[in-house]
Design brief:
- The chain has helices at about 35-50, 55-60, 145-160, 195-200, and strands spanning about 5-15, 20-30, 70-80, 80-95, 110-115, 125-130, 170-175, 180-185, 185-190, 195.
- It has about 220 residues and is α+β, with helices and mostly antiparallel strands.
- The chain has a six-stranded antiparallel sheet with strand order 4-3-1-2-7-8.
- A hairpin with a 5-residue loop joins β1 (about 5-15) and β2 (about 20-30).
- The longest helix is centred in the last third of the chain and has 19 residues, at about 145-160.
């Protein structure tokens, strides 16, 4: 289905987990004009700097020291011209690894639900933050105060993107029907550790054991 008419950039945050697994989450930003290669290069560098900032420290700690954030990759679209990306930019994120010391399956994630104030699934977005080393409580869930910090850091990340030059706001883009966009107004997360199934499908089994039963 087509993107709605306008100017949009898909912001992808790319990193690595154990076993060579790659994670990739992101969101959309809307512009009021077509972005040039220079514009997008500048934006990629600015977003990469947000990942290294202290305001992103708790989100980084959700993974362990053998895992990390590697790059920002941007795809800029102008659907009135073409449904294909018109400009692509990338910026490396250097020396950003996790600090968590507990271990969960590689598909473990905290879901940031991106609300827009408009009802309907098509008007909500999601970002799956890798959480392979998040601390869990005795109830096997994430502590509410820790989760609030994660949500607040993600909100700060979104607000910082909104403040970048040439960005109108971060949005949820729907391709349903003729498509539409709605501005992100709220971040929601819950304490239950979630999973991203496509990561689970790619996770390599490191061993398999058998035990013979005596008839």
């Amino acid at each position: 289905m087509p993107l709605p008419v306008g100017y949009y950039t898909r912001i992808n945050i790319v990193g690595h987990l154990k076993g060579g697994e790659i994670f990739n989450w992101g969101l959309w930003a809307q512009h009021n004009a077509l972005q040039t290669q220079t514009d997008l290069n500048t934006m990629a560098s600015a977003v990469a700097a947000l990942i290294t900032a202290t305001s992103f420290a708790t989100i980084r700690s959700l993974i362990d020291s053998g895992e990390g954030y590697d790059k920002v990759r941007l795809y800029h679209y102008a659907p009135a011209v073409s449904q294909n990306a018109k400009v692509v930019a990338e910026s490396n994120i250097t020396s950003v690894v996790g600090s968590g010391t507990t271990y969960h399956p590689l598909q473990s994630a905290i879901v940031m639900t991106l609300n827009t104030g408009v009802p309907g699934r098509a008007n909500r977005g999601r970002a799956y933050l890798p959480a392979t080393s998040v601390a869990l409580g005795t109830d096997h869930q994430i502590g509410s105060s820790s989760l609030q910090t994660v949500a607040d850091e993600f909100k700060t990340f979104v607000n910082a993107i909104n403040a970048l030059t040439n960005v109108l706001s971060c949005v949820v883009v729907s391709k349903v029907g003729s498509g539409n966009t709605n501005v992100i107004t709220q971040i929601v997360a819950d304490t239950r550790l979630d999973t991203q199934r496509r990561r689970a499908n790619k996770e390599t089994v490191t061993a398999r054991v058998t035990s013979t039963v005596t008839p």
